[in-house]
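Per reviewer request, we include the raw input and output of the structure prediction for the construct analysed in the revised manuscript.
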Amino acid sequence: MDSKRKTIFRDISWLSFNARVLQEAADPSVPLRERIRFLGIFSNNLDEFFRVRVATLKRMVEFRAKAKATMHLEAEPQKILDEIQMIVLNQQSEFNRIWEDMQDELKKEKIYLVTEKQLNREQQEFVRVYYEEEVSQSVIPLMIESIPDFPFLRDKSIYLGVVMWKKQAPLKKKYALIEIPSRVLGRFIQLPSPQHEHHIILLEDVIRFNLPEIFYYFGYDQFSAHVFKVTRDAEIDIDSDVSTSLIQKIEKGLKNRRKGKPVRFVYDREMDPALLEYLIRRMNLTKRDNLIPGARIHNFRHFMDFPERRKPFVHPLLVDQRITDVVMEKDVLLHFPYHSFSAVIDLLREAAVDPEVTSIKITCYRLAAQSKIINALINAARNGKHVTVMLELRARFDEEANLEWKERLEEEGARVLTGINDMKIHAKLCVIKKRVNDRNTYYGLVSTGNLNEKTAMVYADHCLLTSNQKIMADANRIFSFLEQPKSGEHFLRACKTVIPSPIVLRKQLHKLINTEIKNARQKKPASILLKMNSLSDEDLIDRLYDAAKEGVELKMIVRGIFCMLSENPKFKKRITAVSIVDEYLEHARVWVFHNNGKEKVYISSADWMVRNLDHRVEATCPITEEGLKKQFKNILNIQLNDNVKARWLDNELSNDYVSSKGKKKIRSQVETYHFLAKKILKHSEIGSH
């Protein structure tokens, strides 16, 4: 680590997080199917990292070359890219080692991943028939040497690079490309297998086996075929043409994204060297374009299908109850994925048919493929409710799906807001308006995670169901801002309970940290406990450094990017900083400030990053009920005591596990499940307003 730096480079810290995912894949105590899934997550994460972050750094390199000394960047982008390449190559090597070990373990469980050269006669016949009946119509071989313009290769796809020749003329070789149609057919095919065994073949190996049939017209009798994939720049360029609507700009950007510059080329290291050289030349790649040799199998993201998990349970207060009735009486705090997400869907379903409900306003960022949230909102619109949906069209990689949802909602009569220029809407809010005895009353939710029933089964998040009128009034103010963003900043400034981004949150965080610094200077107890996905904002990191130097106790649980240097002899108290990577993805943001004994506890949709604080609409909500505060502290303490899945976040990015030597083993996700499952929530713990 550069001794002059005050923080860790964001992208290097992110690679350290992905290394923790790889640790899970390597951990023999993790069930084998889970370990394979972690390989899929690692691979998918890395794809997105190259599509977004590496692509951005490459743009910066180009821009810097053009702008020369006019840019004042924290470091040379090329220097960071070179470091990324070195780390990724080392991680790829570890990835390959883990996968080889796993294949041995699969064999012990009588699961065999076989290639086209290992098929018995029955399997060979099966593969011939399967190819003819299921695959052949989706295979389009491209004879690339005879095409003047090299064909466009799709991001997220895998390709077979094929070399063909005749035995009697081995020097006369021809090249072809075949896109593997895994989007249509899936990647894995179950073969006829001996009793008590499972033989699986990959789709590309089915195609390899049938190459003589595919290219029979040319009379070749020798074939070599190896997999490769291309990762492209996925940033959407939103042009500045004021005559074009945001929707048109996004649609145009999506088309251009498919043609983004290649930022990574991953290939089977056994690939024919001449074909490799030919591909690199035709695609205008250079040695600095992240050429990454790998093993035979690429695109491990297909291994991300989740195995069975512990089933979520209904929150004790909501068992056999109408959700609305409970929420009108008291706050209910849901902890996903331990609590069932069905409570959120049922809240909307009840509102859709409630004759007293007049309107529903909701923010949507990432939705499930067959979204039950959208279905409930459509039902509400059909029942005459005024439905307003803030649908963020620029949620990365969900843009196309959200454009389709927009069309569907508008067809049903819902009003769809589509965002603000240069600002994503990331807040997770819902406000339901109810007319009771000629008076308006409001209820709804504030959440740390997306309103998505699929991800709620694997993302650890918190969702407050509430009819607290102060919280709902501020949520309404945020919606008023979204409805008139050009003139509506005063709505954000008027919030009294919920703390919105932009404009307000950064200032409030400074105040909260400064209060702890002031108390520490006066020798009073002072502490800050932070849980989030990412911490990279240098302004707030500086304030946390100041707090540590004054003796404020800092404890942090940060899953992903962590740019702080947590070890410094000038700190009066050692900073506790850990990352938990386990079965569920720790996605929640929770902040606790001691505040001279009158603790302030917040849940938020925002991480401590420049984008969340200054360039997104976010919502940070206080937890005011003492019972719920206590519940949060119990869960956070369980996580701080994790000594099975927690790693220290140190200056060297070593990812050392927190030791359990001589202590009872505590795996926080399992302990949290038991804590919530056994807890009998008394009325005093969840007070009414």
